[in-house]
Amino acid sequence: MTSSAVASVKARRVWDSRGRPTVEVEVTLASGASGRAIAPAGASTGSGEAIDLRDGGPRFGGLDVTHAVAHVAREIAPALEGRDAAAQAVVDAALVALDGTANKARLGGNAIVATSMAVLHAAAAHAGLPLWRHLAGDRPVRIPVPEIQIFGGGAHAARRVDIQDFMVICPTAGSFAEALDRTAEVYRCAGMLLKERGLLQGVADEGGFWPAFDSNEEALDMLVRAIERAGFTPGDEVSISLDVAASEFGRGGLYRLARDGRELDTGGMIDLLGGWLSRYPIVSIEDPLAEDDAEGFRAFTTAHGARAQVIGDDFLVTSASRVADAAARRDCTAVLVKPNQAGTVTETLAALSAGKAAGFGTIVSARSGETEDVTIVHLAVGWDAGQFKVGSITRGERTAKWNEMLRIEETLGARARYAGPDALAYAR
Ligand code: PGA
Ligand code: ZN
Asked: Is the pLDDT score of 46 beyond 90?
């Protein structure tokens, strides 16, 4: 047995940022090196995602994970013990084969992704390297451009506004740290503006303000005002990024915007968003159409893709084959990758690599249900994704990621290169 062989795999139930149970896995190698990771959980999930195994029944609203935890002990541990943790692709293929389903529904995507990431951490620990460096090897890396939520809506705020994420993005900052500085000022000013208008209602699932707005446009207006109040030029020092998460309110080419009291077809939706793109400094837009509307994506990208990056999240669900298909059809210009959408580290990297091969922008992303786990920070740097999405600048499960990125930027010192404007991909 090599010293990087898996000696034990243990799972436990822990809690996520919504107070829901989730799966943590701890992997120890023959050398004594160990790694640990926790599965996150989405709320606005794409239908093609790996499935989290939940117990059902009355406990915790049916969301308990005792079966997923038990699967790690009963099936996953015996299948991995003795395998080389340094061979991530082989380990992940074994997990996929052991599960045997197309969407990891049998053992649970939550059990599998936590195991896959824990193996990766153990291999990095065995190599004596920070995870990002273990992944990057000798290749140069960039510190990614963060997109950070100021207002939360959609499925993360009881549909208080239709659009899910109103974010700011600072590609022109001199560093990641400076992008956070600018964002913190905008967040603070957004809070002051809401308070002055009696609209402050607390925070949504990812830490952005829970807005009592009457329309989606009101949120955009308020965001521009917050950027200005913070002393920045909108579209120059601070720009806007949206996650429409349109699958949450659109199906079969029909979009129901409850906040604006409108029902739009695909063309109407494209015109609405196109209008926003011309009136507001929006440089990136995620899932502008629903996951079942590839034609709409294509039409949107053709019409507006030169002005704003068009990201597929629910549309591409971190699937390499979907990314390759979308690239061939020019449906969008960027891919968001989330390890638990794919279910393993190897499949997540495959989706990101397919995006890079197509000239797409690539964004490593957290979920709305998160923990203190910082694996994705290291993936974003080690895989040189160029962009990074974690939610807002508040709440510990979010700041755990931003603060870890600050540490990495500091470690790199003069060698740290902020990805900057080139990280975003536009249609040509
Ligand atoms: P989710 O939201 O984690 O609830 O899916 C994040 C996103 O849509 O990007
Ligand atoms: Zn999304």
From this structure: yes
Measured from the alpha carbon of residue 42, the closest ligand is 1
Q: 256-281 pLDDT, tens per residue?
A: 998 888 999 999 999 999 999 999 99
pLDDT above 70 covers a percentage of the chain that reads: 100
- What pLDDT is recorded for position 308? 98
Per-residue pLDDT of 242-260, as tens digits, reads: 999 999 999 999 999 988 8
Mutational pocket test of ligand 1: of 167, 313, 341, 397, the residue with most ligand atoms within 8 Å of the beta carbon: 313
**CB of 296 within 8 A of CB of 270?**
yes
CATH topology of domain 6-128: Enolase-like; domain 1 (3.30.390)
Q: Is 195 a catalytic residue?
A: no
Residue 49 designated active-site: no
What average pLDDT does the chain have? 97
Q: pTM here?
A: 0.98
Q: What residues does each domain of the chain span?
A: 6-128, 145-427
State whether the beta carbon of 88 lies less than 6 angstroms from ligand 1.
no
pLDDT of residue 307: 97
Cα 27 to averaged position of ligand 2 atoms, centre (Å): 30
Q: Decide: 368 in ligand 1 pocket, CB within 6 A.
A: yes
Q: How far is the CA of 165 from the centre of ligand 1 (A)?
A: 9
Q: 145-427: same fold as 6-128?
A: no
Does the Cβ of 43 fall within 6 Å of ligand 1?
yes
Write down the pLDDT at residue 291.
98
Fold for 145-427, please state it. Answer: TIM Barrel (3.20.20)
The residue whose C-alpha atom lies closest to atom 6 belonging to ligand 1 is 367
CB of residue 45 inside a 6 A radius of ligand 1: yes
Q: Which of 26, 237, 291, 338 is catalytic?
A: 338
Residues composing the chain: 428
